[in-house]
Amino acid sequence: MSMTKPNRSGATLSKNRTPDSVSPFSGMCTTCVEGCIGMCEIGKSAYRGPELIYPQPFGTMTAASEKDYPIDLSHFNIMGSAVGAHGVPADSEHAVFTNVNLETTIGNENPIKLRLPIVVPGLGSTNVAKRNWEALAGGVAMSGCVLTIGENVCGMDDEAQIENGQIVKSPDMESRIKAFRDWQVEGYGDIVVQFNVEDTKLGVPEYVLTKLGVETVELKWGQGAKDIGGEVKLSTIEKARSMKAKGYIVLPDPDDPEVEEAFRSHGIREFERHSRLGMVSEEGFAAGVKQMRDLGAKRVFLKTGAYRPADLARAVKYASDNKIDLLTVDGAGGGTGMSPWRMMNEWGVPTVELCCLTYEYVDYLAKQGKYVPGIAFAGGFVLEDQIFKGIALGAPYVKAIGMARGPLCAAMVGTTVGNRISEKNLPKQFEKYGQSLEEIFFEAFNLRETYDGDFEKLHPGAIGLYTYYQRLAQGLSQLMCGARKFALEYITRDDIASLTKEAADISGIPYVTELDKEQAWEIIKS
Fold it and tell me: Boundaries of each Glutamate synthase domain copy (predicted)?
């Protein structure tokens, strides 16, 4: 089984000189010769150094691990049935996929309703998130789902006003919240603001909860892409100095005279801004949750990454003890705007294994009569079959699936196509659909009917994201109909089967020929 591709990747724009003759354990060309200009990661690192740690080009792309993990969601199949129906009358007139209910709720005392079981985890201060925010916010809001403003947004805002070390105004944060609220479907979805160490120091929780009307916040322990703090690239020395002045770690030091000279002479072309590690403690976490609620938060979420199992256990237990509304568990390999590339491929617990561990811990607490938070699984989910499998792996505790890279892809494509329509410069493959927005975007006619005169204000990227979500909705409805489950609450772990013995051993989901074994033999023998 091919696991990783050391020393070369499309993510770092590196390759081997002899692609057909590569040492499998090091990734080096079998023969490394004098005179090579250095196309592999070792070679490019000889002249660009730390740049090769990160996927490229920063600010216009997202990246996901290329590691072929031993177990993934394709190692499970969804089970259908020829009898019965759960959630509708068991007859052919009612048991149709258009009658599947995809709505879900998140939260304990003040639940949020979602039209689809999808949340978009934190998209923060990376350029790719900011550039596509209007499209993301509009598409998620119109779909009746949840969107999370990620870490460091206020700190990165060049127009932010900070007094005595505390944020008092951030036009970027305000515009991100407004972009969602402008298109929010009444009674559905919400905009969530996430905090890390620097955000908390800067007073972002107080600002968004008391001044901007935010009702849902998320404490962040980490993400699946990396086990260090958030990081971005900075293209100007002025921005680098601003970030350093706000307390961030900036490399190289923009106040060093030699670094300044190297930047002026183009020896250094960019800077890195890094966040600090959080330090989790049971008492500190409880105090943080209480602070959020005292400031007026109606719902408090927690997001944790692909840390070792003991840390996952802490997340589950602390979320239970403090009655967290949603715990998002993000598996290794899923996606990022900027993370160290080798770290992304080689650290952490992969998504399927992390989902299975989460189920074990949460199920134990539930059977002990303890409070169980809503669970969201994240880490590489992009299509409807994966959503079904994720919900089934953690049933009945999973309330939603976290997806960021897929929605961002749909938003970016929608924006590109919309721009090409405006420029009257559509590629040839679009000729079969037409030339206008309504002809090309499948859901545009529905949106025009819904929003009437406001349709013209819609960002084409939002239309693209909404259209993608509607595909997911119909596809998931069809899978659920085939399983005879006509609402999300009826999905169980019994609705999927393992296709390998290893998947069965890790997940506790029966191997496909072991599924229904007792029931099947009762039928045969009757």
Answer: 279-408
